[in-house]
Records
---
Amino acid sequence: MPATEQEAIIEVALPCPLYKTFEYLAPLDYSVVAGMRVEVDFARRKMVGVITAVKAESEYPREKLKSARAVLDAAPILSDSLLALATWIAGYYHAPLGEVFQLFLPAALRQGKALYQAETFYQLTEEGSLWREDVTNRQARAKLAILEFLKIGEFYAESTLVSAFANFKNHRRELLDWQLLVASERLDDEIDVAKMPATERPLQLTSAQQQVVDGIIDKQDGVAFIEGVTGSGKTAVYTEIARDFLAKGQQVLMLVPEIGLTPQFVSRIEQSLKVRVGVIHSQITDLERLQAWRDARLGRVDLIIGTRSALFTPFSRLGLIIVDEAHDGSYIQRDGVRYSAHNSAIKRASLENIPLILGSATPTYESVRNIKEGRFTHYQLPSRVSGAMPEWEIINCHEEKVYDGISGKVLDEIEATIARQEQVLVFLNRRGFSPVLTCLDCGTMLECDHCSSYLNYHRTTGKLHCHHCATRYPYPESCQNCGGSSFKELGAGTQKIEKALVDAFPQAKVMRFDRDNVRNSRDLESHLAQINAQEADIIIGTQMLAKGHDFPNITLVVLLNSDGLFFANDFRADEKLAQLLMQVSGRAGRGEKKGKVLVQTMFADNALFNELPKIGYHAYAEKSLEIREILALPPYSNQILVQVEARSEAEATHYLSGILSLMPAIEDVEITPVMPNNLKRRQGFYRVHIILQSESRASLHRAAFQLRLLYEANIRTGIRLLIEVDPVDFS
Ligand code: ADP
Ligand code: ZN
C-alpha cells in the first residue's frame, strides 16, 4: 500500500485530427483500465475520449497535468482485441487513434451517454395469463394482444414492448393496477445465453456445396476463400457453416456490400437458422445502432448481418466472421478514416483467433495471389446450382450501326427476348440523361463551378447536375462564352437509354433503376419486388444492379459502354472491368432458361473481351497477375497515396513539393512526381497527389510517417493532407 495515494496517469485518445494521445490524471475515486471512456477538458471544451493506457509516471511533472472530469464506464467498453484492432487501424492506415475510435462507438456513446440504462422490465402474472375480457371492447382487445404476446417467467424490456405495441404506454397503468403485469427496474447489462439454431436445413446442399461446408468446418482456422461462380449457392454455404458455429454457442458476424443488404436476404437467413439476428447498416438510426451494438455485446443476438461499419461491433462470444462479395468496393471507406473493412476483418479475425471466410465470384487479383501462394485456403463452387452459365457475345460498335447509344443487334435481341416474355437487363454505369451539354455555336461544354467536371443533364428535373458535389444548375438560356442559345446533349446516361427504349418498344414496360429513383432501402425493395413480379420487361440499371440479386426471368443482359474504364488512368482498369463483366453477366439466366450477355464496345479486339469468356475469371486473373509482377505493381508492391488539397492548384503543388523536398530519402521507396488528380477540382478544392510505392511495407510506412510529421510541423490554414494506404481509386 502506498503511503499517500496518488492519482493514476491515463493516456486518452480524443476525437481530433491529431496523431497523439493526451495525458490526464484519473480522478482518485475511480479505478481505471484501458478501454473505458473518460470525460475531459480539451481546448476549452468538454470531450469524451477512450483510455488507451494507465501508468504511474509521466515525463511531465504531475502538476502540469489536468484531472479528467469523470470516468464514464465502470468496466472497459471496448475489449482488448477491439482496442488492439483500433490501434492497428490507426497505425496501418495512418489515422489519428481518437478518430478511429469514432468508428467503434455508436453516437450516444461518443457523446458520453451511459452504456447501460436502468430500464423497466415487465413480467406476465398468473392472472395476466388467464385474463379474458369482453373482446368486443377495443381497449380490452388491445390489452389482450399485449398479454398474449408475453410468456410467463420471462422479462420484457419496456423498449421491446413499445416497439412491438405502439400503444403499450396507454395500457401500462391499468395492466399494472389490475396485476396482470408486474414491473421491476434492473440494469440492463446481463450477458444472455446463446439461442441454438434450428437443426433442420431448409435446402439439400449439392455435393459441391457440402464439400466446401465440411472442409471449412473441419479446418476452423485461418482465412478460407470461397470462390463460387454467380448462382453457385454461396449464401447457403455461409448459412450452413454459420449454423455449426451457432450450435456451439458462438456468435457470427456477416459483412455484406452496401447494396446487398435487403430485408429479404436477412429474413431468408433468419428463417433458415432461427436465431436472433441483428442488422447494422448506414441507414439505421443512432438508437437502432446502439441497440444492435449492445445486443451483440450482451449476447442477445446470435448473428449480426451488416455493411462495412458493422465490423466494429463488440461481441461476447464471436466465433466466425464472413465477408460476402469480398471484392466489393464498398468495403473501402474513402472519407474520414480511410480504411478497408475487408483487410481490417482479416486483422480482427486474427486478433480474436477465430476463422474468417471470404467469398466472391470475382476475387480481387490480390486475393487470387493470396490463394495461389497458400495464404488463403481455396474452396471452389465452379457451377451454378441450377442452370448453365450464360453465353457471351461481343458487339463491335465500329461494325454495327448505333442508334441513340444502342446498336441494331442489341435492339433485335431485346425484341426477341421480350417476345418470349422474358426480361432484359440493360446495364449502363452512368445516370442522368446525358453526361455533357455543349453549346452548338462555340463548342463550350458546361462545367461545375466547384469541380473540374462536366455537368450532367437530367431530364427528370430539367436541370444540370454535378455528380461530384450536389450542386444543380438551371438549364442555360444562353451560353456564357458566346451568348449562343442552342445546346446539344452529348452522350447517353440511363435516362436517355430509357427514352430510347421506350421509343423503340412502346408496348414494353421499361424500368429505370439508378440512384436517382432508388434512393433508400424502401425504394430498393419495391423495385426488386416489381422486377420479380414481372412488372418490368426491360430494366435499365447502374452498378447498383450488378450485385447479388437473383432474378430468374432475366435471360438477356446487355452491357452498354463500359469503355470508360479504358480511359481511366488506373492500372486496375482491367481487373475492375473483368469483375464488372462477370458480376453483370451473373444476373443472366439464373433460372431454368439459358442466359445471354451482349457486350457493346468500341474496343472489341481488347484481350479481355476475347480471353475472359474462354478461360474464365480465375485463369484470366492469374495471367494478368504475371504482368503485374513484371511491372512490380500491386499486389507485387505496395502503394500509399498522399494527397494535398488547397484553394489553388499552384498552392497544393507547392506545398506537397515543399514537404517532399524536406523528406529524408528512404531506400526502396519510389515516389511519383506531383500530379493533379483526375478530378483535379472537387467542391472548390484543388487536389494533387503523389504515390509512394515499395516492395517493403516497412519502408513505405516509414516514408508516409515522415511526410505526416512534416505536415504536422507545417500546418497551413486551407491546406489538408490525406494519406490513403492501399489506394484503389485515384480519381
Ligand atoms: P451466389 O451467392 O453464389 O450467387 P445464391 O446463394 O444466391 O448464389 O444462390 C443462387 C440460387 O440457388 C438461390 O436462389 C438459392 O436459393 C438457390 N440454391 C442455393 N443452394 C441450393 C440448393 N442446395 N438447392 C436448391 N437451391 C439452392
Ligand atoms: Zn460540382
Note: The longest strand covers residues 45-55.
---
Amino acid sequence: MSEKFTAAVAEEFGPTLNVTDIDLPQPGRNQALVKLHTSGVCHTDLHAVEGDWPVKPGLPFVPGHEGVGEVVALGEGDHADIEVGSMVGNVWLWSACGTCEYCRTGRETYCPNAEYGGYTVDGSFGQYMLVDTRYCARIPDGADLLEVAPILCAGVTVYKGLKETETRPGQFVVISGVGGLGHIAVQYAVAMGMRVIAVDIAEDKLALAKKHGAEYTVNAREVDPGQAVVEYTGGGSHGVLVTAVHEAAFGQAIHMARKGGTIVFNGLPPGDFPAPIFDIVFKGLTIRGSLVGTRQDLAEALDFYARGHIHPTVTECALEDVNEVFEKLRQGTVDGRMAIRY
Ligand code: NAD
Ligand code: ZN
Ligand code: ZN
C-alpha cells in the first residue's frame, strides 16, 4: 500500500474542495518532495476551482501556488544549491521548457510548455507537494514562514507588474484593488520610491493601503475614481496597476492614467471591459498584461522581503478552513492574505 497524505482536492468545478487523503508522490528527475509548513490562498485558486477561465485545469487537482516547506527527498538530477532540509516554495511558474523563444528571451512566464503550480501540477493545499528545483523559490534565511508565503505569487506578480508600469521614483502609481496582491503592491511601490494612490470599493481595504504607505485613497463606490485621481495628481497617474477582481476597474484605469502613462493588468476576472479608443489614442496610453514573474523577478521580490521592506498582512488558517476562505474571497472580506499553516 502506498503512503497517503491529506490535501484539499478539486474533484469537480464548483464552490468547494474536498479535504481527503491522496497518494504521496515520488520526486522525479529535477524534482523535490516538499513537506509544507504554510501556503497562501490566492484568488487565482478560486478561479481555478470554479473553472471560470477559458483554459481550465484537468480534474482532479490540488490548488495552491504560494506554498513554503522543507525538502524531504530529491529525485535524480543536479539540484544546484537545494538539498534535503532546504526551505523552498512552489510558484505559479512551476516549470518551463527552457528552450522556446519565450524562455530564451527572458519571458519564461509565457512559455507555451510551462506547467502551472496548483493548476496543471498539484499544488500546496496539502501536507506534501512536488517542486521542480530549477524553478522553485528559495526561501530566504530567517523568513517568517507565514508572512513570506504571499510573496511567492502576490509579491512577485505585483513587483513585476510595477516594473512593467515604468513608473519612476517620485512619480504617481495607482494600485487599483487592495486585496492579497494590491496590499503588497502598495508596499513594493513605496519601497521603489513611487507615490502611491490606492483605489478599492471597501473602506477597510483603503485603511490597509494607508497603513502600508499609500498617500491618497479613493473609494470607487463613492466617487468617480478617474476624476479623483486626475484632480489629486494634476492630470493623472504615470502608472496604474490593476489587481482588482471586477471588470469595472479595468475601464476606470484608462481615466486615471496621465498622458503617456502605462497601465498594467494583473487582475484576471473572466470577461471584458469597454475601452474608449479616443482616450487611449489622445492620451498616448500603453496598456499591457503581466503574468506573475520570472525566476529573476522572484529572486528580486524575495530580496526586497529579506531586506525588511515588505510585510504582508497575513491571517493564519487551517487546511480544513479552505472552503471558508474561498467564501471570504468571493465576498471580498479577506484582510490582506489568508495562509494555511500545516
Ligand atoms: P483578492 O480577492 O485578495 O483581492 C481583490 C481586491 O479587488 C479586493 O480588495 C476587492 O475589494 C477589490 N475590488 C473588487 N472590485 C473592485 C473594483 N471595482 N475596483 C477596485 N477594487 C475592486 O484577490 P487577489 O488574490 O489579490 O487576486 C486579484 C486578481 O489577480 C485575481 O483575479 C487573480 O486571479 C489575479 N492574479 C493574477 C496574477 C497574474 O500573474 N497576473 C497573479 C496572481 C493573481
Ligand atoms: Zn496566485
Ligand atoms: Zn519555453
Note: The pocket of nicotinamide-adenine-dinucleotide (ligand 1) is lined by residues 42-44, 47, 153, 157, 176-182, 199-202, 205, 220, 243-246, 248-249, 266-269, 290-292, 329, 332, 334 (CB under 6 Å).
